Amino acid sequence: VTPTEIEVRLAPPYRVRVGPGxxxxxxxxxxxxxxxxxxxxxxxxSLHGAALGxxxxxxxxxxxxxxxxxxxxxxxxxxxxxxxxxxxxxxLLITFGGGVVSDLGGLAASLYMRGIAVVHCPxxxxxxxxxALGGKTxxxxxxxxxxxxxxxxxxxxxxxxSLLATLSDDEFRSGLGEVVKSALxxxxxxxxxxxxxxxxxxxxxxxxxxxxxxxxxxxxxxxxAGDERDEGSRRALNLGHTFAxxxxxxxxxxxxxxxxxxxxxxxxxLRSAELLDRLEDTxxxxxxxxxxxxxGLPRSLGALRAASGCALAAExxxxxxxxxxxxxGGSPLFVLPRSLGRTALDVAVPPAILIAAVRCQTP
Length: 363
Ligand SMILES: NC(=O)c1ccc[n+]([C@@H]2O[C@H](COP(=O)([O-])OP(=O)(O)OC[C@H]3O[C@@H](n4cnc5c(N)ncnc54)[C@H](O)[C@@H]3O)[C@@H](O)[C@H]2O)c1
Description:
By secondary structure, the protein is α/β, with parallel strands linked by helices. The chain is built from 14 helices and eleven strands. It has helices at 26-30, 42-48, 72-84, 99-111, 125-131, 169-184, 190-202, 206-226, 241-251, 258-275, 284-294, 301-308, 314-321, 351-359, and strands spanning 4-8, 14-18, 36-41, 60-63, 92-97, 117-122, 139-141, 144-148, 156-159, 333-339, 342-348. The strands form three sheets. A seven-stranded mixed β-sheet has the order 1-2-9-6-5-3-4. The protein has a two-stranded antiparallel ribbon with strand order 7-8. β7 and β8 form a beta hairpin. α5 runs parallel beside α6 (169-184), α5 (125-131) runs parallel beside α8 and α9 (241-251) crosses α13 (314-321). The longest helix has 21 residues, at 206-226. The relative contact order is 0.11. The model has no long low-confidence stretch (mean pLDDT 94).
């Protein structure tokens, strides 16, 4: 089966391969480089190390799985590893793992010898539809998530959807939250596909997953090509995220998976748009709510409270939104949906509306 190929039209352009078996293209992607090294995590290495094929013999660093590796200490270890592996300016770093591995590896690749090439091989749904695309790299600081990073586009991205079979249900669901965001942003025909094929999506049918991931990749590729540095239209990708970051922060990082928080953030963005009378497609909220339910995601803040056991008090969520790094001049700005495929950027939502949106959620 030939994987789907999508071009990200930046200078230079690069290809994203999506589908079962996409990793078979790794040797070809690495061929122009005299030396390469692999950054992965211990879980991915033990489950899928063999899928690296001939690149298995390359120097390899396996991180401890999880967000805790994505800090300045982790960055130091990766940079030392690249030097000890003898990588030079013309060498390649291959990342093989979830968003933690691509964020940390991308940052290390952008810094080592002032920048070497990186190819991402994302292994989680979240990384295949989002984190490994678009060139944003980061580590967390004590003060907050993703506060230190660079833009460093990969040379290629190989999203092998067959690797998603081993993801835990929680990790898979988390990726689906970002998938629904892409569908709302207008990934072509994705919303209808998810509504029609929700059962096959949940059972991780390889053919449907290839279509789903490819639709998300096409959307992100288009958005990033229009605004590489996040100075304008790329901000649409933050739909639901100001709410989601507040939920993650108030729950305590790690308690609510990111994409699950995004799913609830989408509902809160829809409610806010309704309350502000800015939602043109008035049936959209009910459609999204129903789709989230069918995909096994919480349909409301109330449902998330019940499922997670976190109180997520309205006042704490509102306070946390004041800290969001997308703030300008102290008040949070939101991306709000208008209809399927259309959003309003930089909307200042008054606190009274936020409180109403957060309160009118029932499980
Ligand atoms: N750069 C960006 O544009 C961007 C966008 C979104 C998210 N992110 C970042 O991505 C990170 C989250 O990514 P994530 O959810 O992939 O987290 P992750 O990398 O921590 O992976 C989640 C877990 O899944 C395991 N795993 C990975 N692949 C697996 C597989 N195929 N089978 C079984 N288990 C597997 C990992 O070992 C880990 O325990 C966050 O740090 C976030 O900030 C970055």
